[in-house]
Specification:
Blueprint lengths: L12 H18 L2 H8 L4 H19 L2 H8 L1 H20 L4 H29 L5 H29 L7 H16 L13 H10 L1 H31 L4 H17 L1 H11 L2 H16 L7 H17 L3 H9 L5 H57 L8
């Protein structure tokens, strides 16, 4: 672990922040083109949705095996390998002759994302002093948010100027750039460990079961609420019959507020403790999910979107911070693999559960159901963070 007095967050730009931004921009820049490509290859709407969903399926499948690769290669080399694998998946998608080839490419990108995400979190946990861990990881969360915004915007420009297929060249170049930056980056040794088996990963999950069953589940709930927020707002805009361009603009405003708060979240966690960010963000998201029915026009839709972003922004990076705090030093990658699996499961399950709930109880009822879940998550965070999460070293 690095010493706080001699540590500067500038040291994280090349080994972590810039590659993470490039990889995130590549991933999100690719997503809008996948369903369109699937339709061009003869898929119906449902099949196109399934192929797009293979990105998350690939991530879920690779979450546990990712620990083995990170231990075998070390964090930096694992990130380089993941960026290269992501580029390979994009190439498969670019030159796909059929739906199977396209699906395989999307799956590989998702799997590469799992390895990249685990390696960068493991690297940060090892090299960043605990006193500034939350601020450092909140900036990392900000890079992810920036990529999720910049990627689709750049992709839209490429589509307008060229074609849907041309979009794949953008993430291909970005993945290559991420690998090149990592290849020449300096900032901490590349820690390779004895490669663990999947059996060992499951053994660590059992050993650390109480952490995973409490704060791991709470983090999964937070991930699920973030997913329903991203899907629920566009659905609400359709329900309110708002013009598409107006709804997109309002959601963009809300996204800007979310992005603007990432460093404040880190300051809160480092100075006052993790629960001061985790509990309010779950309570806020739970409450705003319950208030979806209050939005009846464009103004109230904008207000709801801003309130959701405010609640979400308070907890920027909190899932990564808790994972880093909870990870045992002797089996860090193995624990984080299981922790990330729970988080990704929440992200993947939320859209799948929201759709049938909307059919049965309507959008307001479905979002309210997830809102109640938010209060359960807040209760778990409030009860267990003081017991398991590492407390900040200072309140400077």
């Amino acid at each position: 672990m690095a010493n706080t007095a001699n540590f500067s967050k500038r040291k994280l730009v090349l080994p972590v922040y810039l590659p993470s931004f490039l990889f995130s921009t590549a991933e999100f820049g690719m997503i809008p083109s996948v369903p369109a490509t699937a339709l061009l290859l003869g898929a119906d709407l449902a099949t196109a949705g399934f192929i797009t969903g293979l990105l998350m399926i690939g991530r879920l499948v690779a979450d546990i095996p990712a620990a083995k690769f990170v231990d075998l290669l070390g964090e930096r080399k694992a990130m380089i390998g993941a960026a290269g694998s992501g580029a390979l998946g994009i190439l498969l998608s670019l030159f796909a002759l059929n739906l199977v080839m396209l699906g395989a490419g999307v799956f590989v990108v998702g799997a590469a994302s799992a390895v990249f995400g685990l390696a960068r979190l493991s690297w940060m946990t090892e090299h960043v002093p605990i006193a500034i861990r939350a601020r450092a990881l909140s900036v990392l969360g900000g890079m992810f948010r920036a990529g999720s915004f910049v990627g689709p915007v750049l992709a839209a420009g490429v589509i307008k100027l060229y074609s849907v297929q041309a979009v794949y060249y953008l993430p291909l170049v970005l993945c290559a750039l991420a690998a090149i930056v990592l290849l020449f980056a300096k900032g901490g040794e590349n820690l390779a460990r004895n490669s663990s088996s999947l059996k060992e990963t499951f053994r660590v999950a059992r050993r650390e079961g109480k952490k995973l069953a409490t704060l791991g589940v709470a983090s999964s709930i937070l991930s699920a609420l973030r997913g329903t927020r991203m899907i629920g707002l566009p659905l609400l805009a359709i329900y309110l019959e708002l013009p598409t361009e107006q709804a997109s603009l309002f959601i963009g405003f809300a996204g800007a507020l979310d992005f603007a708060m990432f460093y404040l979240s880190g300051q809160i966690m480092d100075r006052f403790g993790r629960s001061f960010a985790a509990v309010p963000t779950l309570l806020g998201l739970g409450l705003t999910h319950l208030l979806v029915g209050v939005a009846v026009d464009a103004n109230t839709f904008l207000l709801l979107a801003l309130l959701m972003s405010l609640a979400n922004g308070i907890g920027s990076g909190v899932i990564m911070v808790l994972g880093a705090d909870l990870a045992p030093p002797d089996k860090r990658s193995e624990f984080l693999a299981s922790y990330r699996l729970l988080v990704d499961f929440g992200d993947a399950a939320a859209p799948a559960l929201l759709a049938p709930m909307v059919v049965v109880v309507g959008l307001t009822g479905a979002m309210a159901g997830f809102g109640v879940l938010g209060f359960i998550g807040a209760g778990l965070m409030y009860k267990y963070i003081p017991r398991y999460a590492v407390a900040p070293e200072s309140k400077r």
